């Protein structure tokens, strides 16, 4: 096996890591009072003003069945069983607080083998180009319009709590809502979904290397689980799509490392490149 790395000259002050194989326009003012009801504190928002550093790449098996993020040494299984269905790892990467030089969590994206194969006949994906995926959101948007199950496995890189994680997710979702042009009814439904998403989180401390799984279902909902325990499904397509898009949006991804590794993973799986 050989090691593959990416160097992106357009991103300043980026440290490169490797992964090794181991076995709206502005929202109308009327909506913001409602959004304030989600009670994100300024301290949490500041804490989660995150910028990515590093990339998770490479292909050198050390033990069968998992992949290790070198930035955190956290292992991720190559195959993940969610809701009694197996999915394949596409890519993973770390989310980091740059100004504190602190890794927060590693996120990995999984899809079913049949859905990955179906992408080969999807418009825009037939001749997949990694560079295009990293430049525009069109391919990711079209992916999320399909009735595919897409799972995101999130593993904290240090001890934290569900309130911090939850409020960070809500901050990302609210920013995406602010950047989109939505009708009053669409805004209302999105805010309702975010409130349900918030209420599904159990308030608790979370250990390093514990497992959260967020799945965009075939029906368009967002299913949540923690350490194998079901935390419910929010049946709202906007929430499910935008939660996943926060990691696939080239302009401002939640994890630059994950975005680039996911793009590389699609390149490898769809075009058979090694």
TrEMBL record:
Q: What is this protein called?
A: Altered inheritance of mitochondria protein 18, mitochondrial
Alphabetical list of SUPFAM superfamilies matching this protein:
Chalcone isomerase
Q: Source gene?
A: AIM18
Chalcone isomerase domain: from which residue to which, for each copy? 88-262
Naturally occurring in which organism (per UniProt): Choanephora cucurbitarum
Which PANTHER family does UniProt cross-reference here? FATTY-ACID-BINDING PROTEIN 2
- GO molecular function, one example? intramolecular lyase activity
């Amino acid at each position: 096996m050989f090691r593959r790395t990416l160097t992106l000259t357009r991103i300043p002050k980026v440290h490169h890591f490797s992964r090794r194989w181991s076995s709206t326009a502005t929202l109308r003012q009327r909506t913001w009072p409602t959004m304030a009801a989600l009670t994100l504190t300024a301290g949490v928002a500041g804490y989660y003003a995150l910028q990515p550093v590093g990339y998770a790449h490479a292909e050198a098996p050390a033990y069968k069945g998992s992949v290790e993020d070198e930035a955190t040494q956290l292992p991720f299984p190559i195959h993940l069983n969610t809701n009694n269905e197996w999915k394949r790892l596409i890519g993973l990467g770390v989310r980091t607080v740059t100004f504190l030089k602190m890794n927060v969590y590693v996120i990995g994206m999984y899809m079913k083998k049949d859905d990955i194969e179906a992408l080969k006949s999807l418009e825009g994906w037939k001749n997949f180009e990694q560079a295009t995926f990293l430049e525009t959101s069109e391919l990711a948007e079209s992916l999320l319009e399909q009735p595919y199950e897409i799972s995101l496995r999130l593993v904290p890189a240090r001890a934290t709590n569900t309130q911090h994680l939850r409020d960070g997710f809500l901050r990302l979702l609210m920013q995406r809502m602010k950047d989109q042009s939505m009708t009053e009814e669409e805004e209302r439904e999105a805010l309702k979904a975010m409130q349900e998403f918030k209420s599904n989180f159990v308030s608790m401390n979370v250990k390093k290397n514990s497992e959260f799984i967020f799945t965009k279902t075939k029906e368009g909902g967002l299913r949540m689980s923690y350490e194998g325990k079901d935390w419910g499904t929010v049946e709202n397509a906007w929430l499910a799509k935008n939660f996943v898009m926060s990691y696939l949006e080239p302009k401002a991804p939640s994890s630059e490392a994950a975005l680039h590794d996911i793009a590389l993973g699609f390149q490898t799986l769809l075009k058979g490149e090694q």
